[in-house]
Specification:
The protein has about 160 residues and is an alpha+beta fold. It has one domain. It is built from five helices and five strands, in the order ββααβαααββ. Helix 3 crosses helix 4. The longest helix is centred in the middle third of the chain and has 19 residues.
């Protein structure tokens, strides 16, 4: 057979990530990953539990969650997926002690209510029969950001044309 590129841009690997972006797409740039969060919390990312995906995959997941929850690509003035991911992880590192957060464990409703900033937290979920750490977006005071219809009221340079 001819050795070529995998048919998918994501391939399953038995190493650090369940889903890893095709290396051809990532060799030019190291994508910020949850290694940053784990290191900031005092863990060694190399020996931590397997992650759902590599840095690019995690950033896409978080970006999709932000759009789904807020209706906009970025929150709090962030301008790139990577900057937003780092911002959310920095907020999580800063919130860990005050809220008694534990890696792998979902936030309780009390912890969510006590959030003062939006965060990304690593939670353990079963995917394809494997336990992996998945980045989960939590929005602070989410109720106050939504209009009475559940629509988000936010924006930069908004022009309404009637």
């Amino acid at each position: 057979g001819v050795e070529g590129l995998p048919s998918s841009s994501f391939v399953s690997r038995p190493q650090k990530y369940l889903i890893e972006t095709n290396p051809v797409l990532t060799e030019l740039k190291q994508f910020l990953s949850s290694d940053y969060l784990l290191a900031g919390l005092g863990y060694d990312p190399e020996v931590s539990a397997k992650r759902l995906g590599d840095g690019l995959y995690e950033q896409r997941l978080v970006q999709q969650a932000v759009v789904a929850r807020t209706g906009q690509a970025f929150i709090d003035g962030q301008t790139s997926n990577e900057a937003q991911f780092k911002y959310l992880m920095n907020n999580a590192i800063a919130s860990k002690q005050q809220l008694n957060l534990a890696v792998g464990v979902s936030l309780s409703s009390q912890q969510v209510a006590a959030l003062t900033h939006d965060i990304v937290w690593l939670e353990e979920h079963e995917v394809n029969g494997e336990m992996v750490l998945v980045p989960v977006l939590y929005l602070a005071q989410a109720d106050g950001r939504l209009g009475p219809t559940g629509a988000l009221i936010a924006g930069n340079d908004v022009s309404l044309i009637a």
